[in-house]
Amino acid sequence: MTESAIFLPSDQPLTIALLVLPQASILEVASALDPLRNANRQLGHEAYRWRVVSPDGAPVPLTCGIELPSSGPLAHAVGAEALIVIAGYRLAEVATRPLIRDFRRIAPRFQLVGGIDSAPWVRARAGLLDGHRATVHWEDLEDLAAAHPEVDVVPDRFVIDRNRVTIAGAAPAADFMLHLIGTRHGAALARQVAMSFLTQARPGAEPQTSPAEPDPALDPRVARAVAIMEAQIDTPAPVAAIALKVGLSARRLETLFRKSLGLTPGAYALSLRLAAARRMLTDTAHPLSEIALRTGFSSPATLARAFRRAFGIAPGATRRSGRDH
Question: Which residue range(s) make up the domain with 318?
């Protein structure tokens, strides 16, 4: 399928409008803009321009507690070649029906329309991803696929499908911008920009949760065991079975886990499952029974007991607290 002409070599300035929604991450904003700023610096001229807009034109409250200035409401994005939405938490609250309606109406005026982190939800609800491949932050992959079967949801870092781009989070946003810079101004410039940030571009098709290199802080066998646990949140395997898969005895695996992570394998696996449950409580409307099923607990009561022991608060109270913040 043909990509947008934005990805062709060009000496013409490119303007990108960022629609930043409340409760987005400042890291995602920086990951989208700083590679463009650095490319301008390396080139010695303004090859990339940008403007930040918000739903109502007011400064945007971010997750870190600061407010991001805005140049105006969504209508002020018109005139840019690309429109990219950045969204994070409390999406049901900030992605209002009027905003989705306005976004649907304005999207055809751009050569490229994109979304970072949870923003693909906004575009899916606007019908702008129907018949397209798309990605979203890994925590939302299953829910987005279930809610929008007309979208081909994949676990990639970023996906370009014709004039649509979806980007899974902050680090993939930088990867995408490096890809964009490389297509317009060459791989050498993209590499120079990446080196300025002491990083390297990773391809969009790379899975989100598979690191390009093993974590040097972990024993490789511990890293493999952790990967198994992360892949089996809903059906946790016995520690002995995991140890067998990584070529160790259960006792040896426990020794390595205590040395590397300060926890037993069982305790670490439980912490992963409880963290996933807490995310679902604060970020979704799933009933406790479904959350228990998705995190490998035999019943809602079993999850509630483990949750209260770990966090000192009941799941229901956590959900109410998440709605208040």
Answer: 220-324
Structure tokens given for 68? 């991001």
Identify whether residues 29 and 77 lie together within a single domain: yes
* Amino acid residing at 287: P
What distances in angstroms separate CA 165 from CA 7, 132, 134, one per listed residue?
Answer: 12, 10, 7
Helices (H), 166-299: 170-185, 187-196, 220-231, 239-245, 250-261, 265-283, 288-294
CATH code for the domain of 288? 1.10.10.60
pLDDT-based confidence at residue 215 (cuts at 50, 70, 90): low
- Identify the pLDDT of residue 214: 55
Alpha-carbon gap, residue 195 to 76, rounded angstroms: 33
**Is residue 211 a part of any domain in this protein?**
no
Strand partners, 68: 60
58 and 163 in one domain? yes
Task: Tell me: do 187 and 287 sit in the same domain.
Answer: no
Reported pTM: 0.81
Across residues 8-23, what is the average pLDDT?
96
- Let me know whether 192 and 224 are in one domain: no
- Rounded to whole angstroms, the Cα distance separating 172 from 157 reads 5
Q: Dihedral (C-alpha) 126, 165, 37, 170: value to the nearest 10 degrees?
A: 90
Backbone φ and ψ of 156, nearest 5°:
-75, 165
Among 17, 2, 19, 8, residue whose Cα is nearest residue 163: 2
Q: How far is CA 42 from CA 17, 82, 173, in A?
A: 22, 22, 20
Total domains present in the chain: 2
Q: Are residues 102 and 52 in the same domain?
A: yes
pLDDT in tens, 17-66: 999 999 999 999 999 999 999 999 999 999 999 999 999 999 999 999 99
pLDDT at 324 over 50: no
